[in-house]
Amino acid sequence: MPVTGGCRCGACRYSLDYPAIPVIYACHCRDCQTATGGGFVLQAMIPEACLSVTGERVDRSAPNSRGAVTTQVYCTQCLTRLYSTNTGRPGIVLVRAGTLDNSDTIVPAVHMWASRRQPWIGLSSDAEAYDGAIPVDRIMQVFAPNFA
Ligand SMILES: [Zn+2]
Ligand SMILES: [Zn+2]
Fold this sequence. Notes:
Layout: E1 3-6, E2 13-16, E3 24-27, H1 30-36, E4 41-47, E5 51-54, E6 57-63, E7 69-75, E8 81-86, E9 92-96, E10 110-112, E11 128-129, H2 136-143
Parallel strand pairs: 3-10, 10-11
Antiparallel strand pairs: 1-2, 2-5, 3-4, 4-9, 6-7, 7-8, 8-9
């Protein structure tokens, strides 16, 4: 059974070509707090080919601080952000994992920008956490199962 998810209103639905929830990270940076209106974001980095979406979507693009253009994709009805792409890493999407149907079973593999997390969010002592972004070589290791 594929992993499924969708927006708040139900107009957009998606499935991920994985037998179980793929590797997910949490980002506690201030940008993600602002973008979500919450304490952090949960995202799955996967090949675009593993994502199938139905329903009407709208996207918005903007340059990021590293000179790439990120495109955020939303449901046209309820404006839930479903996923994003980045010209700096073609063929890869970041699925907003809080939109998964089984989002209550997510355990993030990695926490980034833990130094910026809300002070009331405790991380277990064995959690893999970085004060800033995940080192690039470690990203490749952590998310390798999603690309196998
Ligand atoms: Zn919707
Ligand atoms: Zn972030």
